[in-house]
Design goal:
By secondary structure, the protein is mainly alpha-helical. Helices cover 58% and strands 2% of the residues. The protein has eight helices and two strands. Strands 1-2 form a two-stranded antiparallel ribbon. β1 (67-68) and β2 form a beta hairpin. α5 (88-102) runs antiparallel to α6 (112-138) and α5 runs parallel beside α8 (168-182). The protein is elongated and about 65 Å long. The chain starts with 5 loop residues before the first helix and ends with a helix. 16% of the residues are buried.
């Protein structure tokens, strides 16, 4: 469970530090979800009290680089997402699609560092933009932040086509072809 009430986070951190706390949070979870469909509530009631934990969401800035030599970070290791638009796994899949496009079978091992730099160039802009969008949508969860709630619909209209109308394999393949042409 990820608390959105600052007092719960503070109380938990004072007692348990930055790790999860081991208290029973099942009753609090059921209270938070009380307005959900009864089927959801019935499912939540099946949880063992000891399995419901309180975890703080960590918001991190994008790293200064994703690659170094022949090492590359993908998915949450490259850029951890807040869960507000559910794009963490999707961007990890896009990272993998990019890697698969720029490293076709038979790629010369000597090209690995240069192609990983290309991966970094390709993925940085898009994933950073989606990360920023997720972060901004999370602000509407803050109590009293009506401006963020009003902007959510406008932002969704702009960003959702950007997020869901993209084929990373095709995009990365085109970028690879341009990169290869520039090296001739």
């Amino acid at each position: 469970m990820h608390p959105d009430i600052l007092s719960e986070v503070k109380e938990s951190q004072e007692q348990y530090g930055d790790s999860h706390d081991d208290r029973d949070h099942k009753s609090r979870m059921l209270e938070i979800f009380q307005d959900f469909d009864t089927r959801v509530l019935e499912l939540l009631k099946l949880a063992q009290p000891s399995s419901v934990r309180l975890w703080k969401l960590w918001d991190m800035d994008p790293p200064s680089q994703r690659c170094h030599g022949t090492l590359a970070l993908l998915g949450d290791a490259a850029l951890p997402f807040l869960p507000h638009i559910g794009q963490g796994a999707a961007c990890a899949i896009e990272d993998a699609a990019c890697i698969s496009a720029i490293f076709p079978l038979g790629t010369d091992p000597q090209d690995v560092p240069a192609r990983l730099r290309l991966y970094e160039e390709i993925r940085e802009g898009r994933s950073t933009k989606i990360h920023a969008f997720s972060r901004s949508l999370g602000r509407d969860l803050e109590p009293g932040n009506e401006d963020a709630r009003l902007n959510r619909a406008l932002m969704a209209k702009e960003y959702f086509p950007y997020i869901f109308g993209h084929d990373e394999f095709v995009h990365s393949s085109k970028r690879l072809n341009g990169w290869l042409e520039s090296r001739k």
